[in-house]
Every structure is written in structure tokens, then in C-alpha cells.
Amino acid sequence: MPGLRAPSDYSNEPPRDPCLIINSKEPFNAETPRSALVSSYATPVDLFYKRNHGPIPLVDDIERYCVSISGLIKNPKKLFMRDIRMLPKYAVTATLQCAGNRRTAMSKARAVRGVGWDVSAIGNAVWAGAKLADVLELVGIPKLTRITQSGGKHVEFVSVDKCKEEKGGPYKASIPLSQATNPAADVLLAYEMNGETLTRDHGYPLRVIVPGVIGARSVKWLDYIDIIAEECQGFFMQMDYKMFPPTVNWDNIVWSTRRPQMDFPVQSAICSLEDVNVIKPGKVTVRGYAVSGGGRGIERVDVSVDGGKNWVEATKYQKTGIPYIADDIDSDKWAWVLFEATIDISHSTEIVVKAVDSAANVQPETVDEIWNLRGILNTSWHRVHVRVGHTNM
Ligand SMILES: Nc1nc2c(c(=O)[nH]1)N[C@H]1C(S)=C(S)[C@@H](COP(=O)(O)O)O[C@H]1N2
Ligand SMILES: [Mo]
Predict the structure, then answer these.
(1) Which pLDDT tens digit goes with each residue over 135-160?
(2) How far is Cα 120 from Cα 241, in angstroms, rounded to an integer?
(3) Are residues 223 and 335 in the same domain?
(4) What is the pLDDT of residues 327-337, one digit of tens each?
(5) How many distinct structural domains can be found in the chain?
(6) Ligand nearest 221 Cα, by number?
(7) What is the CATH number of the domain that holds 277?
(8) Keyword Oxidoreductase on this protein (predicted)?
(9) Are residues 191 and 215 in the same domain?
(10) Which pLDDT tens digit goes with each residue over 279-307?
(11) From ligand 2's centre to the CA of 265, what distance in Å?
(12) Measured in whole angstroms, how far is the alpha carbon of residue 360 from the centre of its chain?
């Protein structure tokens, strides 16, 4: 691993913003405060959630850093940063969401295993770098290839970080070759986030961004790429990040019966309010985010002020002053929409949000029907409680 090194302890961690809400220190897992999450369309890098499985890698010498591409291809190659920077640079606005987002709420229904997260294991950023489809062309794989002549069907991304789940080995994941070689899928080898060089926490010097797919497949600190016949057999593909039915528990689980989760489902959350709030009676503006996977836009965001009996439609936007329309030429298809609804509140109640995506997929009403032992993909209606208090009390 020339130029890129993984420490075996936590004495070399980067500095971090004190406003982050820390869910675990080692490895470092932290999320954005709710109110900060929706104060900008692109999430500031310092406040963007950080999801790690080991100590943060270091670059000793960026000149020596390179990514090797080998496996089931004829001409393996080593690519240095200058080779990757020589390719056309694309900027893709994409929301990254951890499959464990909103896990804490799911664990309240029934215990689950995993790091607890509130509603901010998600962020939206402008990622810039080379398209993976262009990179793979450099090693002789044409655009829109499903299988290489030597039988390669998946693209595996391997990092250097030491993860205990991998028994001290590196984090890895794969995506299908057909997606990797499809320029329209916008899979990037990114070296910039929001116009600046990637920071160590987010994968410096180079990371994968797989838009529309759970965060776990966007491998940080890329070391090498392997073209393989079957999907990656790593822990995070085969023993984690799979959606099991509520009947499966730790005694009867058979991991091989389910596929690794890829696209994320439709999701939304209220961010301008905490779980329990005391407010004055009158007008309240409710703000939050809504996003779906696979490049599906958001068709509608519904807000209820009576626990889900009656609904009003929220206003959606991506750019200020331009109304958002799903699948419109101006919409960022991989990115979230922010929403806003001003409602009148006269008594204590429950405010609820749910979104509908462009394929008319909806969110489930409660966690019960989607509960799973790893606590992933909690996309149930998001609810907050408001208690109306009077100032002269
Ligand atoms: N090398 C490496 N890549 C990784 C991870 C990791 O622990 N190691 N975590 C994954 C998970 S589960 C998520 S949700 C995203 C988080 O990216 P972020 O920390 O930039 O927000 O990175 C993914 N890529
Ligand atoms: Mo994740």
C-alpha cells in the first residue's frame, strides 16, 4: 500500500468539530445536530456524519500513493493521483446515508445490535473526481460492460483501515460491473467534497461514491480495485447490511439467505424539532429532508399535526427560489430535497412526516413491520412530540 498507511490505534485521529454528536469514540462515529443538518443544502464537511470501523488511515507521501486495478482483466495497472486527475472531472451532488440511520428509534421497539444513530447518519455533498467508468476504460474495460472476457462481473473496492469485524483486515465492498461501467450511474473515485480536498475522516486521498446506494458501499481510503467473478465476500457485504424479516433473530439467522443491501429506500425526517419539544401555541415551521435511492426523486412530502390522521403537503426545494420537481432536468437525482411546512399548533400533539418517491414508494407507518435484528433501514414515519406551554405559566 504505497503512500497510504493504517494506524493500529487511535493516537493519530484527525481534529473534529466539537458540535458533532458522538455515538462512539473508537472507532469514531458521530452525526450532525438535527437543526444544523437542514440549515444548508450541502452539508458542511466538518459537520457531515462520520462512520468508521477502525482508526483513520494516513497518507505519508501523496506522490507515491496509487490505486492498483487487477483481477479478471488482461492489463492490470497502477494509477497515481495524477493519472486519476488527468481524467475528466465530474461533480455529482449526492446524499450519503448510512443504512443504520435512525437505528436508535428502531431499537426502542425491540433491541437491535449496532451503533445507535438519531436521524443524521446522512448528509448531502458535492463530490468531485473521476468517473469509475472512465477509470475502468483505462484498463481496457469498455463502457457498459456486464462481464469481462475473463469472467469478471463485480468491482471490489478495498481499503487499508483495520476493522475488527474483518479480524484486523481492511474494509471492502463491491458493486456490479454493469453499474461501475455505466457513466449514467455516476459512480465516482472522488478526491473532493464540497469543492475542497477530501478530509481524512471522509476518505483522503481517494474514495468511492456510489450514488443512490447505502453508504457502506462507498469505500473510503481506496487502496486497490479487484475485478472479480462473484460479489465481494467481505464481512460488510455478507455478514452485515442485509435486511432480514422480523422473525429472524440471532439464534436462527442464516446470512447467506439474503442479498447485500444496495439501493436505499425512501426516507424522510423532521430536523427542526427534537423528539420532545415545548413550544408556544401558534405558527410553527417544520423543516427536514427527504430522499430516495436508485436515483428516484421525491414526489411528495406529507406532514401531519395530528399523529397521522390528516396531512398537508410540504414545500420541497433543492436550490433556493427554484421549486423542486422530481425528475426535472434541474433536479439533482442523487440528492436529497429539503422540505418546509408552516402549521398552526394550538395543543400538544405529534407531528409526523412521510415521503413518496417518484416510483410511488412510501414509508411504512411503524418500525414493527420493518424491524430487523441489525436495525438497518429504519424508514418508518418520523414522529416528534410537541407540548404546548404557555409563557405566563
Ligand atoms: N474504508 C472504509 N470505508 C467506509 C467505511 C469504513 O469504515 N471504512 N464505512 C462505510 C459506511 S458504513 C458509511 S455509512 C460511509 C460513511 O462515510 P462518511 O464517514 O464519509 O460519512 O462510509 C463507508 N465507507
Ligand atoms: Mo454505514
Answers:
(1) 999 999 999 999 999 999 999 999 99
(2) 18
(3) no
(4) 999 999 999 99
(5) 2
(6) 1
(7) 2.60.40.650
(8) yes
(9) yes
(10) 999 999 999 999 999 999 999 999 999 99
(11) 14
(12) 21
